[in-house]
Amino acid sequence: MNLAIFLYVNILLLFLVLLGVIFKFNTAIFIFIFIIMCLITLLLFVYVAYFIYSLIKENKNFVPYVPTPMKIVKEMIQMAGVKEGDNVYDMGCGDGRLVSKASLIKNTKCIGVEWKMDVFITAKIRNFFRRGKAIIKQGDMFKEDISNADVIFTYLLPRAMDRLEDKILKECKDSVVIVSHGFIFKNLKLQEEKHIGKITIRKYSK
Ligand SMILES: C[S@@+](CC[C@H](N)C(=O)[O-])C[C@H]1O[C@@H](n2cnc3c(N)ncnc32)[C@H](O)[C@@H]1O
What we know:
The chain has 206 residues and is of the alpha/beta class.
């Protein structure tokens, strides 16, 4: 998303330069616009380099940011049966849509953990504008203490799901409810499965 914003800003500046040529802006304004364009282009390069670096570093544990459609978000919250007083987690929360929405349920404590900085910032902004009360944390979800979780949401790839499953089995209360979008957990107990178009969501217990 930030990448797109940078691109739009650069295109806008290019447009300003064209206007400058037509309406003969003075040199100082041209130099100013040129410096800003250079800085944004540099940021774009850094962003792309960081993305490639994280792809290489995370190797097979890499999970891309793909948001759950809002219609499915509602279904997942309903399937989990989030209720007053619940501690709710989204492990790899993306733009925070699940926890932000769930936090509108009275007295819930909703925590989203996301390690990609740009996605994390998007989640913070989204949560603010949607009046969500979720806590969005930047970091590795595998380092998050989830021992008090009543509900866990997740949408990951199989390798990360296996790791998360081990963590849930080790750390969570017996009463924890897990609702996943997409891939399956192999050792948790499947309680419910729902197909909505091409999407499958599942509810598990320990
Ligand atoms: C497929 S997206 C799902 C986003 C969100 N849960 C949703 O359903 O809309 C998976 C997200 O998990 C994040 N993620 C993957 N591994 C992670 C980790 N170890 N710690 C924190 N976030 C992680 C990715 O950056 C990505 O944004």
